[in-house]
Write a structure and sequence with these properties.
2 copies of one chain form a homodimer. With about 300 residues, chain A is α/β, with parallel strands linked by helices. The first copy, chain A, is built from 11 helices and 11 strands. In chain A, strand 5 and strand 6 form a beta hairpin. In chain A, helix 3 crosses helix 5, helix 4 packs parallel to helix 5 and helix 6 packs across helix 7.
Chain lengths: ~300, ~300
């Protein structure tokens, strides 16, 4: 398998990307890597870090899309950017997955418009890992791609999240909870009220009912479903827990797990090939983890399994 | 002024309520208190805790609405309950405010249906205090009374929240932020997109733009506005920060401030008289604080000021 990696994305590119690649290839890793970026900057670093040449293909990209550029505009105008070339390679079948810690908007636009949606998917989605206090791991989705949703979309997010939780997070029969303001059926805003019966009837998932804000960090549900407005606010609030506990020097094992570098980025779920979006502050470990997630997604045919589950 | 207090509401009633009353009256407090509940249970406790008889009126209530009873049904059928009698006294003008740590739903139903809305208010709202990392205090609203909202309602929440923040929390010219998924105008779901221009044009408030999940716990905005679905989830998530840090014995000054007992309950904003809803786990300190907030709301004519600001 071939995995494409944007070497120019993220605040510490390309050095941290190179280090992540080195770590990945030092293990008995399955994938060959297409490293996309400015050859003049990348080649010396690859040599310096002794990255084995037989496992990589460097693809030169003369342009970079900045973190603050307008996604659609930049992607259209900068055809030689590492992100644009990354999606060209993916769409052409030269690579089987694409990873970048660069401009999130451009990554989303690229994923949605240059890669087809999985057959049957109404809207692709993005998720985040939520560490649970008991040591477990939850998946929250959507976290911002779809600020307004229809019940049928949330129902599909539940299915896609369940497949991902099972195959990538290793959770057997993941419990699906609907983010809501109360436990009982019938609670919530119009969207949650209309979504509940769909989840209840859905035989592809293990629906355990409504969950509340108090349940997000504890062991109540493995896959937590909501529209992207609420999900994005929860995600960004959760991210500050690491920052705050860090600033306050709490050195707590649990709050440390909110360091999102541990989780290897956010896959776009529902597009036909793995696309993984990293955090702007991704370091070597994050790149290493993202390549690992992409490998696992290809190996386990996560997107094929989603297609089956949605039929 | 006369403040009504439900002595039977909350998990530790009536003992903790009596202790809170004792503490309040031990200071040079302005209000006389109407203590509503089972006389047989209350009287011995009042004597035991030496509550001065000239500052209190005990009003017997033979029934109690349980924490899990259906709000509307219970309030209708249990006319002799402490909550029902509390609202009768308030509606009749015998008291100027009503406080209970009992059944939240019954308190909301009572507030909405036995007390008129402030003139001009489309929908009353409930808020919560959010402690800020720098030691400051924010106000988040709505936190669950209105799961679906219209832009005009959020605009009013911003005004009511600003008046409350100024007069009760003592924040000069409070900064209003719109909870959203991005900083720029135009971001967000349809509701947030439609609300932004209303807040921007509103001369009664100091609008500082969109705020994100990462801004909730830091010093970015004093009054944080959203619909009650998102707000309720943030509230309940924030409450678990105290519980988790407590369970993990972190003993951190900041996370300790998420102990909601510190803040004396949630006022219903937008009904014509102060109604304050306490947490089920309210102890003496919470009751003491709730009586203090009610006194301050009457003294500063918070609801009159809201009416003015909304015209």
């Amino acid at each position: 398998m071939n995995i494409g990696l944007d070497m120019m994305g993220g605040d510490f590119a390309p050095l941290e990307a190179v280090k992540g690649v080195q770590q990945y290839l030092a293990e008995n890793a399955a994938a060959n890597l297409f490293l996309i970026g400015n050859k003049e900057q990348i080649d010396p670093l690859l040599q310096e870090h002794k990255v084995p040449a037989d496992r990589i293909t460097v693809v030169h990209a003369g342009q970079v899309i900045g973190m603050d550029e307008h996604p659609t505009k930049a992607l259209k105008e900068k055809q030689q950017s590492s992100i644009a070339i990354g999606f060209h390679l993916l769409a052409a079948g030269k690579t089987d997955a694409f990873i970048s810690a660069g401009n999130t908007g451009a990554m989303l636009v690229g994923a949605l418009f240059s890669i087809k949606a999985v057959e049957g998917v109404l809207r692709p989605t993005i998720s985040t890992i939520i560490p649970k206090e008991d040591g477990g791991t939850g998946l929250l989705l959507d976290v911002g791609l779809n600020a307004d949703c229809k019940p049928e979309q949330l129902n599909q997010f539940a299915v896609m999240g369940s497949v991902y939780a099972r195959l990538i997070l290793g959770i057997e029969n993941p419990r699906v909870g609907l983010m809501n303001v109360g436990e009982e059926e019938g609670k919530g805003n119009l969207l949650a009220q209309a979504t509940y019966p769909l989840l209840k009837e859905n035989k592809q998932i293990n629906f355990v009912g409504n969950i509340e804000g108090r349940d997000v960090l504890v062991d109540k549900a493995d896959v937590m479903v909501c529209e992207g407005f609420t999900g994005n606010i929860i995600l960004k609030l959760a991210e500050t827990l690491y920052e705050i506990s860090h600033r306050r020097q709490l050195k707590d094992e649990y709050f440390d797990r909110f360091n999102f570098e541990n989780y290897g980025g956010t896959p776009v779920l529902g597009v036909a090939k793995p696309v993984i979006i990293g955090h702007g502050i991704s370091g070597a470990r994050a790149f290493y983890n993202m390549i690992g997630v992409a490998e696992k997604m290809i190996e386990k045919d996560v997107l094929g399994k989603m297609k089956e589950a949605l039929q």
